[in-house]
Amino acid sequence: MYDGLGDRRQALAFYEQALTIRREVGDQAGEATTLNNIGHVYSGLGDPQQALAFYEQALTIMQEVGDRAGEATTLNNIGSVCARLGDRRQALAFYEQALTIAQEVGDRAGEATTLNNIGQVYAGLGDRRQALAFYEQALTIAQEVGDRAGEATTLNNIGHVYAGLGDRRQALALYEQALTIMQEVGDRASEAATLNNIGLVYEGLGDRRQALAFYEQALTIKQEVGDRAGEAATLNNIGSVCAGLGDRREALAFCEQALTIAQEVGDRAGEATTLNNIGQVYAGLGDRREALAFYEQALPITREVGDRAGEAVTRYNVAMVLRADGDLAAAIAELELVVELDRQVEHPDLADDTAMLEQIRRQMTQTHTET
């Protein structure tokens, strides 16, 4: 319950009490379940390495006691950590093991979940067509077994693919289908996430006022259900809209609220994202020194939590500040790191970042020639 309310520190305290008792009474299956739950909390706190350590302990026990369904769930969890750390190929390997087990034991709902996860890996690799193929398999199974919540989740994921392909109208239609189901089944947390996604579509379509309306609906629900991390993410999105509308001071106020919450709940990954966003607001205000200060606060956190994609985004922003300051050599050094990080996580923006690197190199060469 505390985990669901977003109070992860309190959740952790109860899970640790449960773990002690499970070990005392020799309940290995229960111990593995609790280790999994603790891993989930650390994942939510932005500590993927600690999450991985607990998931691996859980996996060992589940394999020892022959809990095949639990083993598949834990393999899925390990895969999610690998994906978060930017190692999508490794994530795919864990998900494929989980899929095989789910199919062997006839866990159709688990099979659909794993197909969804595999789809997310391919989406992250930029292979949206392959992602769509896995999502569609997952959707068919969710509908067959009557898993309405799973159906809604998959419709959301398919919506993400269409949004990424630039077909925002199709994405919107899928999100709206997902929203209807979530409202029917009373899944308030997922409803808020979907409202947030609809807001992102409208923002992408340039309709910032409509985007803001959906973000505000999402924010209200997240506050009602106590999803503090989700509240921070939506405050960030509202800040983005305000910045797009030219109200950067208002944007800064929302981002600062988001930062406070991320720090309160211990969401280190969210904290880094928000610091980066605040830096972008200051850059938009023309205060490059202040922007750089926030980017430099974000960078060590992205490295600490293993968010290589987030590190790449922040380093790119640093490079743009350095370029604007005329320090082309330093900008090139940052962009070289960005390109390397993009390669490591097989990021779809690798070509764009490489092109920017070459552009600044040419700019530097021209500057030397003119001198």
TrEMBL record:
Coiled coil: none
Pfam families to which the protein is assigned, alphabetical: TPR_12 (PF13424), TPR_8 (PF13181)
TPR repeat feature ranges: 32-65, 72-105, 112-145, 152-185, 192-225, 272-305
Recorded superkingdom: Bacteria
Full protein name: Tetratricopeptide (TPR) repeat protein
Keyword set includes Transmembrane: no
Keywords: TPR repeat
SUPFAM superfamilies with a match to the protein in the record: TPR-like
